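I hope you will forgive my troubling you with a question about protein structure. I am sending you one protein, given as its amino acid sequence and as whole-number tokens for its backbone shapes. Thank you for your consideration; the sequence and its tokens are set out here:
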Amino acid sequence: MKVLFNADDFGLTTGINDGIIASHLNGLVDSATLMMNGLAVDHAVSTAKKTPSLKVGIHLVLTWGKPLSKDVPDLMNEEGFFKYRNTYAQSERPNIEQVELEWKTQIEAFLKTGLDLHHIDSHHHIHGWEPLKDVVMKLANEYRVPIRKVDSLSEHKEIFLSNELYLDFYGSGVSENIFEKLKELESESVEVMCHPAYVDEDLRTVSSYCELRERELELLCRLKRPDWAKTF
């Protein structure tokens, strides 16, 4: 079985960045996905360039912070922030053209950093929102990178980063038996979503998921990868 540990929210705060780098250099994390509108993007890019063994993808955003494009009024609220939240599934269909423009702007900003684009995923898994599946397919094909597995694109498994996506290493699921759980999947390849971080004040202001990130960091640095769990 191939197992990829991917750390989300790279670039959101410096504490997250430092936690991701530590869990890569000293632990299980193989890759991270960068939020181009985060509070610490420049710091993330700088540390990633100093750590070339870390694969870096993009964490497309539509539910946090401000857009990078200035031409997406239908995606914003009166204060200029994205109007969508993690409850987006109950929202009305978005302006598809503006989503494509914004996400291409985020990807192009990523490419301008000089980092190699490893794969595409998204904050709150919004790339799996049914109305956006054609946009996601288009971006995956245009930039020639795989995407994180989502149910909405189950007919296009050829573009998936992995056969399975393990989401339970989160919250109450953060535990030492992660590899026992993965082995039960009996899958050819599995991506494990994780969120290691050192909790800083910026993180406390932007996320309700804080202290458990340090628990993730501790486990990701302490646990050993078994021989059967090959990286990819």
About this structure: The chain has one domain: 2-222.
